[in-house]
Amino acid sequence: MGVEEDAVVVNMDTVEKTQSRKYKRNDSLELEARTPAHARDPKGESTALMLQLAFQSLGIVYGDIGTSPLYVFSSVFPEGIKDNDDILGVFSLIFYTLTLIPFLKYVFFVLRATDNGDGGTFALYSLVCRYAKVGLLPNKQIEDTEVSNYQLKLPNRREMRASKLKIMLESSHFMKIFLLSATLLGTSMVIGDGVLTPCISVLSAVGGIKEAASSITENQIVLISVIILIGLFMVQRFGTDKVGYSFAPIICIWFALIACIGLYNFIKHDPLVIKALNPKYIVDYFARNKTDAWISLGGIVLCTTGAEALFADVGHFSVRSIQISMCCVTYPSLILAYAGQAAFLRKNNDLVSATFYKSIPASMYWPMFVVAVLAAIIASQAMISGTFSIIQQSLSLGCFPRVQIVHTSEKYEGQVYIPEVNYILMIACIAITVGFKNTTQIGNAYGIAVVFVMALTSAFLILIMVLIWNTHIVLVIAYALIIGSVELIYLSSVLYKFDQGGYLPLAFAFFLMFIMFVWNNVFRKKYCYEHDHKISQEKLREIACDTSLSRLPGLGMFYSELVQGIPPIFRHFVANVPALHSVLVFVCIKSLPISKVAKEERFLFRRVQPKELNVFRCVVRYGYTDARNEQEPFEKLMLDRLKEFIVNENYCSRQDSDDEAKVQEAAQKEIDIIEQAARAGVVHLMGENEVVARKGAGMWRRFLIDYSYNFLKKNLRESERIFDIPQQRMVKVGMTYEL
Fold first, then answer.
1. DSSP 8-class letter at 32
2. How many other CB atoms sit within 10 Å of the CB of residue 170?
3. For the segment 520-573, what is each residue's pLDDT rounded down to a tens digit?
4. Helices then strands (H, E): number in the chain?
5. What's the distance, CA 315 to chain centroid?
6. What backbone torsions phi and psi does residue 130 show, to the nearest 5 degrees?
7. What b/e readout covers 456-490, taking b as 16+ CB neighbours within 10 angstroms?
8. For 501, left (φ over 0), alpha (ψ -120 to 50), or beta?
9. Greatest CA separation found in the chain?
10. In the Cβ-directed half-sphere of 422, how many Cα atoms lie within 13 Å?
11. Of 534, 544, 649, nearest to 588 (Cα)?
C-alpha cells in the first residue's frame, strides 16, 4: 500500500504544521470535528490569459448558437414568404431577440449568478440551497458553511423582503418540492437539447450538399447524417480534450465566414434592411399576419439555441472571457449573418427553404459546406459533453441512478464520459433523425426545449435577485416584465406546435424526470429511515466493548450514506459476524450544494469514545462537479488525513501542556496503531440495502419502490464501482429496509 514508507515523513510534517494551531473540541457524536476554512485569494486574470480563454470558449460555448443561421429563416417561413416586408419584421425580431436574451440577459445578468465560477441549473439551485434551507435531505452540518466555496457575500440592506421570502421557502414543504422539480425539469430539458442539437445541426449542414448534387435524395441525406452521428458518438470515449483540440480555430473560421458572407449579401442585395432596427416593422409584421406571426415565433426563437451554454459552460473559462467572446465575436457575427440572409431573401423570396446555402457565393460553396459540417459536429459535441456534465451533477446530488463516470482528461476535471448515457443518446439521435427526416419538425421540438430552459433560468434568477442579491424591487419588476414576458410569449408559440414534433422534448423530459423523481424520492426515504433508526453513541460503545466480540487485525472502512450517527446496518453486521477490525472507520460520501471542495477541506473526522476503541467517523465531502475517482488512491488519502486528525486532536486535548515531547509521543503511538492496522490489511465494508414497501402500503408506493426503484437499481452500476473500491478487499453487508 505504500503506507509504511511514507509514515515517518507524513507524521513529522503533520506535527510541525499543527503545533501553532488551536482546535475546538466537540464530544457529541452528532457534530463532526471542525476544520478551519481554507482561505483562497482569487487570482486576477491577466489580459493575455483572458483573451486566450475567450478564444478557447468559441469552440466549446458557441457551436450551438453559431450554427443557428443554418436553419432559422427556413423554420420561420416553412410555407414560403407571403409579403416582402415580412422579411424586415422577422429580421427585426431576430435582432431584438438576440440582443435581449443571449446578449443582455445571459452576458450581463445570468453570468453574475455563477456558483463560485460554475454555471447551469444546478448552480442556481445550489445558491438557493445554501442561503435558505430548502434541501430535502436532513444531512446539513454546521461545518459545511466553513468550506471556502460555501460562503456567500451578501449585502446588508433590503434584507426584510429577502428574510420573508427565506422564511416562506423554508417553512413550505411544497416549495422545496417545487424548487427541486423545477431543477430536474430544467436539467431534463437541457439533456433533451443534447439529443436534438446533433440531429438538427448535422441534418441542416449535410442538407446543403443538394446545391452541388441535386440528384441526391432526402433518404441519402438522412443516411449520411446518421453515419456522421454514429462516428461522433463513437469518438466520445476518447474525451473532448483529445477529439476537440481544434474546435476554437474551426468555430472562429466559421464566424469569420458567416460574418463576411453576411456583409457581402447585405451590400450586394439590399443595404436598406438596416431599417429593420426600427421595431415598427415588428408591429407591422404582426398586424399583417396576426396568428401566423405568433406561430412563426417558434422558428425565430431558434436563433437563441445554445444561449444556455454561455452560463452552463462558464466554469471551464471565466465570466469575463465569455463576455469578451460574445460581445466581440459571436454577437456581431450573428447579426451580420442574419442581416445578409435578410437582404438576400428580399431579392430571392422563393429560395427561403435553403436560405443559408443559396446565399453563399458559388466560389465559396465547398469551403462553407466543409466548415458548416465541422461546425455542426462541434455544436453537437459541445451539447453531448454538456449532457455528460449535467448527469454527473445530478448523480452527485442523489437525483440520478448510478452510472459509470469516466474522467477523460487529466488536465481538465470537468471533462467526463458516461458510456451508458452515450449509447442511449446515440440511439435517440438516430431514431429522431430517421423518424423526422427534415429540420422543420425537429425545429418545433428544439424550440420547446430551448425556451423552457431559458424561462426556468429566468425564474431562478428572479428568486436569487430577491433572496440573495437583495436587488431593488424596481429592477426585479423590470427584468420580469421585459425579459420574462418575452420568454413567455415565445413559450406560448412553441407550445402551439406541440402536435408537430413539439411533444418530443416534453415527453423525453418527463420520462427523465420520472426516473430522477423515483431515484431521488426513494433515496430520501431510505436516508430518513437510516436517520430515524441510527445507532446511538451509548449503543455503539456497548457493542464495541462487548467482550464476546473479537477484534481482528486490520483496518475496516464501513461505508454508508448517513452523515450523523452510525447506520442501523452496523448492528445487523455485528449480529451476524461477531468480530470487528482493530481500527474501524465509518465513511460517509456526501455531496455539498457547491461546485467544488478543496482536498484539504474534504475530510471531516470524529473519534468515537472511548479512545481505546480506535473507532472513527469520516464524512468525505464533494462538490457537484468534483471528480470522485482521485488519481491518488482514496484509502491512502483518507489514512493521511486520519493521521493529521489524530495529531490535531492530541494538540487540542493537551493545549495547556508545556511538554511538547509527550504530545508528539502520544500522537505517534496512535498513528503507529493506524499504520499497523493498515499493514495488516484494509477491508471495505459496503452496506447494501434492499428496500421494499412496508406492509399495508398503497399501490403508488409499491409501484414506486418495489418495481420502479428496484428495477433501476438492479440494472445499473453497483455503488462500489462508482467509488472505485477494490473488489478483492470488499465485503458486502445486506439488510432490508421497509419504507
1. P
2. 13
3. 888 888 888 888 888 877 777 777 777 777 888 899 888 888 887 788 888 888
4. 31, 8
5. 10
6. -75, -35
7. bbbbbbbbbbbbbbbbeeeebeebbeebbebbeeb
8. left
9. 95
10. 20
11. 534
Strand order in the sheet with 615-622: 603-608, 615-622, 579-591, 550-560, 682-692, 730-738
Answer whether 605's CB lies under 8 Å from 629's CB: no
d(CA 252, CA 330): 9
Residue 588, φ and ψ in degrees, nearest 5: -120, 125
Four-residue CA torsion sign, 515, 521, 522, 523: positive
Cα separation, 64 vs 66, in Å, equals 5
Q: In this prediction, what percent of the chain has a pLDDT beyond 90?
A: 26
d(CA 549, CA 543): 8
What does 349-361 look like in DSSP terms, one character per residue?
A: GGGGGGHHHHTS-
DSSP state of 397: T
Asked whether the whole model's pTM tops 0.70, one would answer yes
> Is residue 522 within 8 Å of 704, Cβ to Cβ?
yes
362 Cβ contact list (under 8 Å, min separation 6): none
State the average pLDDT for the chain.
81
Q: What is the dihedral of CA 666, 668, 673, 674, to 10 degrees?
A: 120
User: Cα 499 to chain center, whole Å?
Assistant: 30
Beta-ladder partners of 579: 550
| H or E stretch at 580 | strand 579-591
For residue 114, give the nearest of 322, 387, 311 by alpha carbon. Answer: 311
Taking only the tens place, the pLDDT of each residue in 186-231 is 888 888 877 888 888 888 888 888 877 778 888 899 999 999 999 8
Backbone angle region of 319, left / alpha / beta, with phi > 0 → left and psi within -120 to 50 → alpha = alpha
Mind spelling out the 3-state secondary structure of 417-486? ECHHHHHHHHHHHHHHHHHHCCHHHHHHHHHHHHHHHHHHHHHHHHHHHHHHHCCCHHHHHHHHHHHHHH
Question: Nearest CA to 196 among 386, 477, 461?
Answer: 386
CA–CA dist 198, 229 (Å, integer):
7
Strand 550-560 vs strand 603-608: parallel, antiparallel, or unpaired? Answer: unpaired
